[in-house]
Amino acid sequence: MTTGTDPSTVPDWPAPVVRLTGQGTVEVDGAVLPLPPGLDGADARQWAVKNVAERYARLGRAIRVTAVEADGTSFPLIVHPDGTVEALAVEAAGGRRGKRRPRPAAATAKSDTPRGGKSAPGAKGANGRSQEGKSQAKGLIAMGAFLGVIVLGGVVVFSGGGGDPDTAPHSVATTPSAKPTPPPPANLPRPAPDGWTTRAAWALKISGQIGPAVDEDGTIAAVTDKGQLVVLDGASGVTKWSAGVPNDASGSLVFTRIDGRRVVAVSTGQALHYWGIDGDEHPHHSVNIPNSGTVTFLGPSPLISLRDATAAVIADGKVQNVDLPVRTTALAADQQTVLAADPSGHWWRLAPGKQPDKGLEMKSPADKAQLNTVLGVDGGRLVGVWKKDDTTWATAYDAATGKPLATGKAAKDPGTLTVRAAGPLVAVGPLLLDTQRGSSREVTGATPRSAAAGRIYAVDPQQRWHTLTTGADVVMNSKDVAIPLGVSAKRALVVADKLGEKLLYALTPSTNGDQQPAPDGSGQVAAPEPPGQGTS
């Protein structure tokens, strides 16, 4: 048990704000968390603070927490990894308990609530008692009032409690105070993609549960093996800023746009957490996803697909429903606009609280061709797959005007079609459409798997990888070649496993003199064998 902690020894970050709403939820730095059933009053307060303690226990040190009542009264606390809670001084001489502040919007609450003043050490009042001592004593009373417990010796220890600590909040984004050490260089343990070497300028250990992401402008986001969200400098791999992530987050990080701002997002299944990217501050927000909801990121913004002819978008920090016409499927979202289409080839751009207009309709690329499938590309384009006898066409349309942008023709049924897009290029199964030039070509048997930095990567029936661009296609003979997530500062970012760990590698570009690994061939290199296991 820790007592009498000097507040100056407790760093200013992380500094989560725990706010009781009085409506069965707790807000932490803008994240709205439902309380376990049956908890209210003092039990709810203790649950909230205990979960914060458990969440940050991995730091191995005390943190500052500001607890805020539903009426706005704040209580600055110090919370230790073992659950010990200490009160900070909450008033200056002549002040009153706590600080009553205007209640900010839930979706934008940040850890900017003052943590309490600190009198100069040894300062005396008129009665000879130190102002610091008076403030601390009243702070203890305030802490006891907030937590609903009797405070003895200046501390409170929670040994029990309810709720799942995995739903507890996490730290706000922080910028390293000291000059960070860049990750070391390394060699990629797999063949490199076309145009890159197996030499990595740097390599970073990352989470095996959450995949990294590279934005179109080269911004890199990853979750480290220590569970920290980091935004990295592409050239050096140095961390620009970091934040904690929920323990139950999974899938991949995604760059997207919410409320007009660029953010990096990750899902926990029941909630979407996101952080602002641009600017000096990177506030954390989260929204709860309805039980029936599925979040996808085909367009510039998150799309929440719901049942009963309903979709949803995130606007003003909240989930807002969008009614869909009958038999319509939502494909993508752009801010508050949802792109949705029906099986007949009609599509609409819909928004919350607005009635749909007459929409637009796909034009057939050939006489008597029948529409087979409608596929989403992004917020501005969609594809119609048409069939007539043994011939298949794929046409990309401008979602705003209905204009056909490019059409590709396959000589035989390509089977299940997968869509990937990179800039003006749209791959629909083996058909590659250039929506800028209005041209197309077929890469026989190819299935697009990923896209990055203006290139689409596809695999053929022989499991060879193809790099598809606006120019000539490149066939990479190695079957286990590493495929880039994106490019940043002339580095190709790839993920590969090495000795049981997952690493993010920043590959350097190849030049004419670079020695690349030989492609797959019929020969082999025999590895040495331990003594007693070789042939005699």
UniProtKB/TrEMBL annotation:
Keywords for the protein's UniProt record, in alphabetical order: Membrane, Transmembrane, Transmembrane helix
Name of this chain's protein: Uncharacterized protein
Compositional bias per record (Pro residues), positions renumbered to this chain: 179-192
Keyword Magnesium on entry: no
Annotated spans, Disordered: 92-133, 166-195, 508-536
Transmembrane segments: 139-161
Keyword Cytoplasm appears in the UniProt entry: no
